[in-house]
């Protein structure tokens, strides 16, 4: 059995991996929605004022032909807040729920 933990600090590959995990129905995803910043590799360009800009030159599509929901991210199947106060006490609510879900899947 497999579960995946995600949160709002995950983007890029942290968006791609859970997106694939969910698309392929590999198991429940637990946590908080990811950032939604997965448009593909970007090329950098210098601006005349010394600044710069990056322009993505690819998109990722799933097996269903739909592209990744840029700007939204991956929504967990089971939403559990990554509570900093609990984490500071050594309690990880997301991990606890993930272990419970694995136990259910093993029955």
CATH-scheme architecture: Alpha-Beta Complex
**Termini, distance in Å?**
10 Å
Q: What is the tally of helical segments?
A: 3
User: Nearest-angstrom radius of gyration?
Assistant: 17 Å
Helix content bin: 25-40%
Q: Return the domain count.
A: 1
Q: Report the CATH topology name.
A: 2-enoyl-CoA Hydratase, Chain A, domain 1
Question: Beta-strand level of the residues, as a percent range?
Answer: 15-25%
Average per-residue pLDDT, rounded, comes to: 89
Give an account of the 3D structure.
This protein is flat. The chain has 107 residues and is an alpha/beta fold. A 3-stranded parallel sheet has the order 1-2-5, sandwiched between helices. It is 28% helix and 17% strand. 17% of the residues are buried. The protein has 3 helices and 5 strands. It has helices spanning 13-23, 84-88, 93-106; strands at 4-6, 29-31, 42-46, 52-56, 78-79. The longest helix has 14 residues, at 93-106. It has a single domain (4-106), classed as 2-enoyl-CoA Hydratase, Chain A, domain 1 (Alpha-Beta Complex), CATH 3.90.226.
């Amino acid at each position: 059995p497999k579960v995946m933990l995600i949160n709002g600090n995950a983007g890029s590959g942290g968006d791609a991996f859970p997106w694939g995990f969910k698309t392929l129905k590999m198991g429940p995803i637990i946590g908080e929605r990811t950032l939604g910043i997965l448009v593909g590799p970007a090329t950098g360009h210098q601006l005349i004022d010394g600044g710069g800009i990056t322009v993505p030159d690819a998109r990722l599509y799933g097996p269903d032909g739909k592209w990744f929901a840029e700007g939204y991210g991956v929504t967990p199947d089971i939403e559990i807040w990554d509570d900093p106060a609990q984490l500071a006490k050594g309690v990880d609510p997301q991990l606890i729920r993930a272990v419970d879900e694995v136990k259910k899947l093993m029955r």
